[in-house]
Amino acid sequence: MGKGGGCVPSKKKRPPPPANAEGEVRDAPLEADSHAAEADPVVSAQKPLPPLPVEAKLRIFIVFYSMYGHVEGLARRMKKGIDGVDGVEGVLYRVPETLPEDVLEKMRAPPKDAGIPEITGTELAEADGILFGFPTRFGAMAAQMKSFFDSTGQLWREQKLAGKPAGFFVSTGTQGGGQETTAWTAITQLAHHGMLFVPIGYTFGAGMFKMDSIRGGSPYGAGVFAGDGTREPSETELALAEHQGKYMATIVKRLNQP
Questions:
Q1: Per-residue confidence at 40, pLDDT binned at 50, 70, 90?
Q2: What pLDDT is stored for residue 240 in this prediction?
Q3: CA–CA separation, 17 and 24 (whole Å)
Q4: Within the chain, how many helices (H) and strands (E) appear?
Q5: What percentage of the chain has pLDDT greater than the value 90?
Q6: Which is nearest to 164 in space by CA: 132, 116, 119?
Q7: Max Cα-Cα span within the chain
Q8: Comparing C-alpha atoms, which of 253, 236, 218, 219 is closest to residue 85?
Q9: Distances 229 to 62, 91, 224, 233, 242 between C-alpha atoms, Å
Q10: pLDDT band, residue 41 (cuts 50/70/90)
Q11: Is the pLDDT of residue 49 over 80?
Q12: Through-space distance between the first and last CA atoms of the chain, rounded to whole angstroms
């Protein structure tokens, strides 16, 4: 301390910065700042939260055969009804075609939508519920759908489909062409697999009793009149298909409650 009370520089000399092997002087290392902010123990202790588990949805397979698109139109609208129920989703599949391309061309069948995959019989076991759609052939299901059912022998032997809910929707050419018989003759397929047939009954309400227009469908399931192939599904027929999808989704949810 000097006479004037001021600070006197220290006479102790600091050591020079170290030199490397080539004699070059390196900068002295910086001293740590004693006033540096310490890490917040609360923030540093926090760990990223694991992602919330995504609850798997119940899946209803909509398995159909459609030559001219009428059954496919019902299937797409049916998926809308299924997807509208929380926790359930509809998945569209088509069964394999059995007719050669040249025959389909002569029958003027339009090309099939490549966005809808073909299904194999063994894949049915992955579904929580199934809706089968097909056109009629003399009051029974088309051969393409029957051929598909015939491929499920291994599932039958192992009873992999037993207890699964299932329903039908159909297409016929005329009012007397099999809107009911096409569905109820198909029930034998479900019975041998031990599946649960889920008809819609009269749950569609007033729409089941309307007589002011031609409408396909019955208590067995949704339906459409194709006529000579040029008639498109009416809004009432599509609405019935959507209702069936929604109704089936509620049944599947009920059956899968713990």
A1: low
A2: 96
A3: 10
A4: 8, 7
A5: 69
A6: 132
A7: 125
A8: 253
A9: 22, 26, 11, 11, 22
A10: low
A11: no
A12: 86
Q: At residue 108, what are phi and psi to the nearest 5 degrees?
A: 60, 40
How far apart CA 156 and CA 192 sit, in angstroms, is 7
Distance CA(200)–CA(251), nearest Å, equals 11
- The tens digit of pLDDT for each residue in 126-151 reads 999 999 999 999 999 999 999 999 99
**CA–CA separation, 235 vs 240, rounded Å?**
9
Pairing of strands 88-94, 165-172: unpaired
Q: Say what the pTM is.
A: 0.79
Residue with tokens 């029974």: 140
175: which 2 tokens? 């009012």
The two three-digit tokens of residue 7, written as one number: 């600070």
Burial of residue 147 (CB within 10 Å: 0-12, 13-18, 19+) is middle
SS3 of 202, please?
coil
Residue length of the chain: 258
Q: Give the mean pLDDT of 66-77.
A: 96
* pLDDT range class, residue 14, cuts 50, 70, 90: low
Q: Do 68 and 226 touch, CB atoms closer than 8 A?
A: yes
Q: Which amino acid, 21? A: A
Assess contact for 240 and 217: CB atoms under 8 A: yes
